[in-house]
TrEMBL record:
An example molecular function term from Gene Ontology annotations: RNA binding
Sequence similarity: Belongs to the tRNA pseudouridine synthase TruA family.
Keyword line: Isomerase, tRNA processing
Active site: 23
Database matches in Pfam families: PseudoU_synth_1
PANTHER family from the UniProt entry: PSEUDOURIDYLATE SYNTHASE, TRNA PSEUDOURIDINE SYNTHASE-LIKE 1
Domain Pseudouridine synthase I TruA alpha/beta: 125-242
Swiss-Prot/TrEMBL GO biological process terms: tRNA pseudouridine synthesis
Species annotation: Asarcornis scutulata
Protein name according to UniProt: tRNA pseudouridine synthase
Length: 242
C-alpha cells in the first residue's frame, strides 16, 4: 500500500494505519486503513474516486484492492476508532483426508481430519465464549502479551451452515460447509484460531462443551490442548465497523 502511495507523489511520505493485522495465510474480505496525504502546493486535494483509481493502478500485481475511500476527521484512527470486527472461519466436513478437498476450496477452508463433527455440541460450547471474559487461555503468547489486557467481550459466536464456492457442482459428494462467526471490538493474538480449534475438538469428542467454560476459567495459555489451534487458511476478516 505504501509503495503504491509513493507513486501518487505526496509531499510527505505516507504511512498507512491498518485496522486489523492478520497472520500469514489469513484472508480479508474487507479491511480498513487511514492515511494522511499532502499534495504539492497548488494541486487540489485528491477526490475519493481519484485516490481509489490511483492506488489500484499501482496495486495491480498485489492480491489487494481499494474498494472505497472516505474523507474523515483528523482524530479518526482506523484501529482505535473501530466499534467492532467480525471474523468468519470456514469448515468443510465430509473429507476424510486433505486430498479430497475440492481444488477451488484449498487454502480457503479447513477440513478437520475424520470428516465429521458434532456441530450441535460445538454450538453448545460456543455459548460459553459469549460475553466478557479473561481470554488468556485462548491467546498465543507474543512480545505484546505483558502489556495487553486479556479481557475481551465477544458479542457474537455462531456456527451456521454455509455454501462452498461452486458447491452445486459437487453436491453428490455430500460435503458440508459451516461458518463460525465471531464479533468483538477487538481480539487477542490468534484468539479466533484458538477458539475455533477448541470448538473443533468439541466436535471431534476430544472435549466436552462444558470444558470450554473450564478452559476459560483457567486463564492459562498453556491449558489449551496441544495442536488445538485452527490453521490460518480458513480464517477471514469479514468487516470492520465504525
Amino acid at each position: 500500500l505504501q509503495k503504491a502511495a509513493r507513486n501518487l507523489k505526496p509531499v510527505v511520505p505516507i504511512k498507512f494505519h491498518i485496522s486489523s493485522r492478520t497472520d500469514s495465510g489469513v484472508h480479508a474480505l474487507c479491511n480498513a486503513a487511514h492515511l494522511d496525504i499532502q499534495r504539492a502546493p497548488g494541486k487540489p486535494a485528491f477526490q475519493e474516486r481519484e485516490l481509489i483509481r490511483g492506488l489500484n493502478h499501482h496495486l495491480k500485481s498485489e492480491p489487494i484492492r481499494i474498494l472505497s475511500a472516505y474523507r474523515v476527521t483528523s482524530d479518526f484512527h482506523a484501529r482505535f476508532s473501530a466499534l467492532s470486527r467480525t471474523y468468519i472461519y470456514r469448515l468443510l466436513l465430509g473429507c476424510a483426508r486433505w486430498s479430497e478437498v475440492p481444488v477451488f476450496e484449498r487454502d480457503l477452508c479447513w477440513a478437520p481430519p475424520g470428516g465429521y463433527l458434532d456441530v450441535p455440541a460445538m454450538q453448545d460450547a460456543a455459548r460459553f465464549l459469549l460475553g466478557t471474559h479473561d481470554f488468556s487461555t485462548f491467546r498465543s503468547l507474543n512480545s505484546e502479551t505483558p502489556f495487553q489486557s486479556p479481557i475481551r467481550t465477544i458479542v457474537q459466536a455462531e456456527i451456521q451452515p454455509s455454501s462452498g464456492f461452486l458447491a452445486h457442482h459437487y453436491e453428490s459428494r455430500g460435503l458440508e460447509f459451516w461458518e463460525l462467526k465471531f464479533r468483538s471490538k477487538s481480539f487477542l493474538y490468534r484468539q479466533v484460531r484458538r477458539m475455533v480449534g477448541a470448538l473443533v475438538a468439541v466436535g471431534q469428542g476430544k472435549l466436552t462443551p462444558h470444558q470450554i467454560k473450564e478452559l476459560l476459567e483457567l486463564r492459562d495459555a498453556r491449558a489449551l490442548p496441544p495442536h488445538a489451534m485452527a490453521p490460518p487458511a480458513g480464517l477471514f476478516l469479514k468487516c470492520v465497523e465504525y
